[in-house]
Amino acid sequence: MQLAGESLSSLKLRLVSWNEAANPTRTRVTAVAAYRDGVACGYADGTIWLYDIVMPAATKAATAIDTDRGQNDFELYPKCLLSAHQSSITLIKLAELSSPSPEGYEDTLISVSDDGDIIVWSAVDGRCISRVWTPLPNIRPVSMCLQTMDYQSAAEDLLFITGEGSAAYILSYPSLAVVYEWQLPHAEWITAHAVRKRKDHFRSELLTCTADGVVRIWSYDEFALAQQDVFSRAASPTAQQPRIETIAQSIDKADVSILESIAGSEAELHHSQFNLESQFAALGPDQVISELVINPFNDDEFLAVSPAIVRLFASRNNELHELLRWRPQRATPSSFVGAGFLGKADILFWDMTGTIFSVCTQFSIEGGSAGIHMARGWHSDNAGLFSVATGLCSVPPGTPDSALSRLTGKQNMQTNVLVSYSSSTNAHVLSVVLPVPLSSVSGSANRPHENPEDAKSGHRNWLGRTMPFDLSMLWDRWLQDVKPETPITSALVLCGDRIAIGRGNGAVQIVSRAQLIRDRDAKVNVLDGHNAAITAFYEWQPAVAHKIAHQSERTAERADTAYIAGDQSTHSLLLSASKDLTLRFWDTLSGECLYALPTQSAPVVHMACMLESGKQILWKDSVKHQVLNRLLSSLVLAVASDNSTTLVSVSSFERIHVTAPYHMRPVCLSLCRDSGDLALHYTDGTKRYIPLSHLRGTAGDQMVPDKSERYPEISVNLIRSKPNNSSWLKASVLSQKMPALVLDVDIEQLQATFSRILTEQMTQAQMEQLVQSNPTLQAAVAVLSQLCLWGVSEELDKIKREFGMGMPRPMSLSMSNRQMAVHTLLFPNMNNASASWCMSSLLNSQRMLAVLMLARSILQGNEKKAVQMINFYVGKLPGQIGRQFKPLSLLTLAQYWQSTNGNLQRAARTLMLSAVHGVSEKQRRAELFYWTSMLARCGPKAVDGEDLQALTIVCVVAGDFPALLPLTGRSMVATLLQTQLEAEGVGAQLAAMELLSRGFSTFRAYLDCQAVVQRLVEIMVSITEEAGEGSGGVSYAAVGQAKAALQRISAADADVVGAGLERMLREGSLEEQRRALQAVGVVVQKQAGQLQGRVEGLAEAIVGTLEPKRATARRRLIGAAGVALQGLVRAFSWVSFDAEAQLLAVGGASGRCVVYDVRTATRTAVFDGDGTAPVVAVAIAPAGDYVASFTLAGQLSVWDPQPSALAMFTKALLWSDMQAAAHGSVTPLKTMTIPRGFLGHAEVPASALMRVARLQWTGSKTVLLQIQDASFSLSI
């Protein structure tokens, strides 16, 4: 799955500069989960960190925590930071998603925040798969479970979300579409829930526990929920009447109370998808159940966890039975926080102090008796630590390289992993436990301890592997590797080649793009003045040259000083706001602080100007126009974090107006058309006015419009930041919570920028000199250095250094989805040069595309080295890195398969074909199976988006490896291709033509070939006409694609194109005949070989369109027919036309020479010759008196096209009707046989002589035959 909702039509990459503010140990962990390679931790600030469990080097062994259990053999390493949630993470769940890998699945993480926001992430590389567009209303999520649908069903899985509120939500997974909103029929909110599929019922059951301690069992039809037509609450089956359920049983003096009748105890149930089956007062309101866990091995049993007690229940025959219970047995108060099943009879539960309890409900003693045995142990011996977040996950089997496979030594089995985060004032410990079920322990030495306190000495026998990690210590080491800088709190791309950087200590830096990306230790001028973190920047550029008053900071006197804008591309003012509540004006060229102003009571977070640089308003009077432009362009509005505003004037360096704080955010600033004042618009619709009359002065009095004239309509959006579409790089800070600097690089725009500067065949010396003098090229080389791989190939590093590239600074490549406001920041691994290529297939694809595009352009001065560098990344890189290299994402490459950027398209196709051929057959088969399954859901309709990319992948793989695609898949893909070809839209047609022609030999048996050719002809001819009217490059691209498609189809089957055109000419409508004639004229110009086998039939069909009886059709078609016939005559030596006699002579593979009268559209003669050798050249004598023909057998003959009576009678006997009978001489007038030496072997094909054999009449009775350098003449 790709980054959902974001178009990657333009190749963009994100670079991230890390800083010390990214330390996750400063924030409390609120949710944890394990996945195949490590652990996911959700934090209170809404961020999620993915930590991989890795094998450390020998020098890193000291970082592990020493306990009485020994030293850890593994350690954690941060993989990526996921930033999207705006509130604390409350739930994280591991789930599987089908993927085009040989294993067929991919680990995903479902994260839920406190405000109801839900996101599905990939645990492999952290990319966002899907997200709810609007957080769930009326709920604070506290419980989540996933129901997996039948694999044979096309419906998605169901995700249940419950919590504090009046509603529960059911969503589809992984798309996260809200399937059903269930308004609860009771007043209490749900504290815990679980779902189970009863084997003896056709419906599923939902178990819920509310805040009053009541357990309810609801039945529902999961397949009805999964259908799109029942997503509304209106669809509801008949509610069943609640039954009276009682429990008259007590187990081990349990406090399970007998429930009174529930008929009438609840209000009448609303009609819904859920039907109440049973209701039980399990624990009472004083012991709220925080977690319900279904036994996966026996769905009758479930665990109910509350802080003071853990109980095992069984629900049978609408009765609830308490089987077992456990209470805390420690002297110090403790609360249970979670529980789970390790096996059919093995239970694990734990408390907030880090104590883990392992129970076997059926354990055989040596004497054969069965009983209950319990053991207990501590996974962390650090005093004062309390578990904040815990979770037991059943992790699917992984590859031999996965962390769990290395830990357990098992590759094909699911593993239970308990993750616990414990914290105190000075310690943050993340523990990973691989518990062992008690039932698997055998022998007296490993028998569970009857006394729980005795378990301390023998916990290794039952608890399994325990790995505690001190995050504080590990993060200190990570900081040393990454070497973060002072936190960057604000950034802005300035005009020219500069970027303003604001840091946490109040420093302001103006650096070039190349310095920011490449030169970390370069000397940069620091603008000192602020003494607190920078919060916002704004660049002000004057639209016209005018005076700006400089006011001294110490005095209130003004001194008029001329400030000429000069070169607007480099000269501007920079406004910086800081947490010290000041606003400073800087000269971007000199670095001088021109003035400082106090702002509001809170830091400024956003600034905007009424008129952006380069914009002017148009009004009727020129004086009014100039005054209004000067005034509005010099006003900058600063918005503070408390929603107060300050209007400042850049021309006078003073505060014009200040508005008090407000509880709503300002969203717009507009000019009042009646009064000429400014109006602030807030989210609740409130308006605040800022008067401007005192600023207009005398000229302003003249600007007051009359009743018939109003001020122009001007407004500025205060929510969106200042657009900067002209630059290939955008710099910003991710968020104030985690102020990492992100650089968005548009690779296409960057490549286009410096490709206009570089020239072909530039020498290396010229290239180096140009790079040193051009900042844009310096930045481009710096970007390429970041993308390239260093320290793996000495040969490759040498090539890069020769062109000015150097080792990159510690920045990481990351991903983002702007439409869903999701950011995935991959953590840089400075100790492993290849680590960045072992994380994300999607990122590897985009990175490889960028390397190919930039390397080809930057290294064009030395094509040989450019080819070496590209070949390394295309062919050798996976082998250099090893099996951990993430293969390229075919889905990402498929998005650029039809890119309008030629360089990007070529790079994408090169990489995609290389990726397809570079993997194993098992991987190719997995890709085909996955993407074919995706297409099966589309149905016989035109596809777009990800479905079109899936179609591209299937066609490319099946085109080169047709045996891997089953017959049913070929039929489905062929139907989709033909449907796509008929769809509207040039984009869909371009893709269909390309893919269909590429895989034509694979899908031919399932295509209507005649309809395909007819459609290609229609597109080619109709768009050609549109292109002639100035429709632009899109139409010409479609014409070229149609021609190329016809050529590839002809290469696969030479007879298809000609047969299709011939059928259109014979059986088509008048419009279809016209298109076919135009197509013949177009095709024979450059791709005449496509029609070689159908020349005889095409010529006869063309002549047939000129039937005199169809006078109207003849007039409309004669022009196109003439062009088509002229094309045939020029392209094929066995076609000849005499304009004076209006005769057309056609030879061919049949061995006959047919003569047509174009005026009557009939045959006039048929010359059979010997009938065994193809006719490869014909010529008509002047005035049509004679026809000469030359065959592959070497026979040169001259024929009389005017028949005698005997010849007419003989031919009539050979043809069924006189009208169709061909008239001509039965035997040639004269023949001559050319020696075989000039023809070579007898098996020489006609296509070989087509280029060398030519007939020409040199007189009225002499014909000349030329074969290469030899010539022969024959006279009558």
From TrEMBL:
PROSITE patterns: WD_REPEATS_2. One of its GO terms (cellular component) is cytoplasm. Signal peptide: none annotated. Keywords: WD repeat. The keyword Ribonucleoprotein does not apply. Residues 447-457 have a biased composition (Basic and acidic residues). WD repeats lie at residues 572-596. It comes from the Eukaryota. Residues 442-461 are annotated as: Disordered. SUPFAM superfamilies: WD40 repeat-like. The keyword Oxidoreductase does not apply. This is WD40 repeat-like protein. It comes from Coemansia brasiliensis.
